[in-house]
């Protein structure tokens, strides 16, 4: 319940139980999505990020299958200031990623990847937030809540280390 109060700060996101049901079927565009395979129930704009997430996990020895887990995703207005993404779930339906439309429209590819990977960190890897900071004040994890004091530092130079941390089984919270 505490988590629910954390919604309003920048980059914040939450897990919340709800009854939201979205059955949007993707409309594959063979011109735009040449090499990217489809994910049922996922906005085609998110496919390349879902695929990259799986690839990054596999490169680190993790079995990845977002389709089998029926993880869905859409881009829509979340309508709360500074919330870029959410992972929603309930006991009856699988995890569902929502990326804020306004954020998406103005974000770089890297910032989009950061937020999609963060939400899949919740939805797929079942990770909770981790606020640890390095001595220089930068975050140790992209799973930071955005409410702590660490600074994001996800860029081409640091990305590999952040993804090593993201997929590190020691931080996962897998439910047997
Ligand atoms: Zn989060």
Describe this entry's structure for a reader.
The protein is of the alpha/beta class and 176 residues long. Helix content is 26%, strand content 12%. The chain has a four-stranded mixed β-sheet. A hairpin with a 2-residue loop joins strand 3 and strand 4. Helix 1 packs across helix 3. The chain is globular. The model is unreliable at 1-12 and 17-22 (pLDDT under 50). Bound molecules: zinc ion. Zinc ion is lined by residues 13, 118, 122, 129, 145.
Supply the key terms.
single chain; 176 residues; 4-stranded mixed β-sheet; 4 strands; 26% helix; disordered N terminus
Largest sheet: 4 strands, mixed
Structural class: alpha/beta
Estimated share of beta-strand residues: 5-15%
Name the shape in a single word.
Answer: globular
Bound small molecules, which ones? zinc ion
Order of helices and strands: EHEEEHHH
Order of strands in the sheet with most strands: 1-3-4-2
Q: Helical stretch count?
A: 4
Quote the distance from N terminus to C terminus.
23 Å
How much helical structure, as a percent, in the residues?
25-40%
Return residue spans where pLDDT drops below 50 for at least 5 consecutive residues: 1-12, 17-22
User: What's the alpha carbon Rg, rounded to whole Å?
Assistant: 15 Å
Q: How many E strands?
A: 4
* Average pLDDT level: 84
